[in-house]
Structures are given as C-alpha cells and as structure tokens.
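Input record (one chain):
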Amino acid sequence: MAVRKEGFEGPVFEKTLLDVERGVYVEHWSLSGEVFGFKGEKAWTIQKRRLRGGLQEGVDIVRLNNGSLSITVVPTRGMGIWKGSFKGNLLGWESPIKVPVHPHFINLDERGGLGWLRGFNEWVVRCGLESNGAPGEDIITDNMGRRKSIMLPLHGRIANIPASELKAFVRLGKPLEIGLYGSVWEASMFGQNLRLSTYITTEPQANWVRIHDIIENLGGTRAEMQLLYHCNYGRPFLEEGARLLLPIKRVAPRDARASEGMDSFLSFRKPEPGFVEQVYFFELLAGADGWTKVVLEDKDRKKAVSISFNLERLPCFTLWKNTASLEEGYVTGLEPATNFPNQKAFERSKGRVLSLGLRERFEAELILAAHIGEAEVLRLEEDVRKIQGLIEPKVFDSPIPEFSPLG
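The corresponding structure, as predicted from the sequence alone:
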C-alpha cells in the first residue's frame, strides 16, 4: 500500500494535509463524493480541521463519513480514532475526559507512570511501541554502555506523539475506498527509532473500518517492539446483560480481583460506582485463514460490534472490564495485541516482546465493524461458533504463570 503522488494518478486521488519534512500543513480542508459523481445514499465526505480552546487547543482531527459509518481520526494523538458512529449508534465510550487532549498537556510519568490516563478517551488507541501494559521498571543500556534502570509509563508513548505526515486518499476502483494515511515516529537519540505507518480505510455505506499498520525499525541496531489495540466500547452496545462472544482456547484472570468474576467473565453488569477493574487474558482460536473474530452484543441480541484480526500477528487478547458509573467511565476494552499488558520485563521473560532488525517491518491489520438487526447478530454468533468448532475452552479460575506475574 504505497503512498502515491498527490492529485489524480490512475484511479487514485490524494491530498497531502501534513508533511513536516516538506513544510506542508493544511489547517482546514474537505472533500465530498459529489466531486466524483457520488450523490444521495452513496454520498461520503472527508473533513479536516483544527480544534481550539482548553485541552484540545491545537489538536487536528479528520472525519471520514462513508454515509452510514463515520469516524474521527486524531493525527495529533498518534492517529488514534477518537469516536465513531454507525446509524446513530456511538462507537466508543463516554470518558470523564471530554475532548481529545493535546500531548502538550500530558505527562506520562505522572502518578507513578499513569499520566497516559489524562488523555484516555478514544474508541481505538494504540499502545506501544517501545512498550505497553502496566507501568514498571525495565533495564536498558545507556549511551555510555552502562546497564540502567528506567521507568516505563502505562501503555507507552505512541498515542501521545503527533503524526509527521498525513494524507487523505480516494481509490476510485470498484469498490471505491476512502481513507487516511499517516506516519508517526517514536524515536530518541541513543534509543529506539521506530516508524508507524498506518492506513485507515472504509467504503461508501460500509459498516466497517480497516486499520492496516506497518511498524519499521529505522535505527542502526535491533529494536524491541510491543503493540496493543485498546478498542473501547460503552453504551449502547455495553449494558447490563451484554455478552462477549469469542473462540477460546485458553483464558485466565490477571489477578485475584479478576478471579472473583470468573463465573460471569463473558457477561457485563450495569454501571456500578467505584467498580474495580477486572482483566482477563485469552489465547484464541483462528479459522482456516488465520483470522479470528471477537463480538460484543447487547442483551437483546439486536446490535453488536465486532473486531476481526489475524492471530499470527496479534496472538494475545485481553478483556478489560470497567463497568463503573457513567461519570467514572462505563466501558469495556477489547484488546488484540502482540503481548499481554503486563510489565515489559515479565512479557520479555515469556518471549512476547518482538525484536526487529534494521529495516525489518511488522504488519498488523484489524477490521472493526458495527452490526444492527437480529439477523446480523445471529450471523456473527455463527461465525464465532464455526471457529470454536468442537474444541472445548480451557478456563482457569485463577491466574496462571504463563499469562500473569501473579500466577
């Protein structure tokens, strides 16, 4: 998926909205499908603007609207997706943080490495790239060749690094595709030099958005890498009686708190003030094509959301249950990843920290979709059943050493 030159070239139109190296920056821009003859039900739009005031001052957002589904991408926050909607249904959640917060206002080292939470309100936020998971100490070799202990913050830095390049594009073939390309650099002198290149795409009237990420090591030596997609859902899909459907090979609670909920770990409760999070680690099954599917359906089985991804690339899955009060953030996180979100040192000891050689690339892709109607939900249930097949899930009631340091 190479980035092509700006303008018409074959069946592709592109517009550069940001290019730090070339000194290009476009503050406001929009494009409508009507330019290409798409009207009525087939109409779609791409709109870019800069936000002003408060903690959102200087944040750039781009809204892709395919006519049924719309998403708001935030280049200033690592090309995360702030919110989405499908036929009037919110994709995302209502966080106590109401606006996309500019990274200028985030101190990741605050509160013992929990500063990441000061800006946490996205529907889809990447965690990585040097590290993700719980904050904690790690050992590095500094610029003088000495072994040194450092603190790694919660979920890494990529979500609070502004993009260096941003392009909108339209592929005019059949089917037509609209999308964004962005690049984000996580680099340091005497440290790692990783580049995230992402393509976020959809089609007119589609119920899905595709994220295709490429991470490349541009440093002079091997570099470690971790990547987790924190996909967060609240109402209307999350509610009392909502259920999670997924093809399970093994599942275990992260800690004693999660063990308390093993009798109902695939169902959800109503908002409860002061609820203490529960986290579950999964090894999933895949279909013949190597892909798996995770589904969150409402209590009436009339609407659902799904995430599809390749298990070879993203072999670990985490369920984060945070059914606190609406004011505190009533949300669940569905999290495909290269690793479990434990401290990096533990994940390294289990062989779940990737290492990229010079110019080596890692690619991951996931498809997030929304589904309305009983027939659609029943079809999703059947998809999961087919992947599960006759394999009986192995369910552990307490943490296990392979998945969690508390095992």
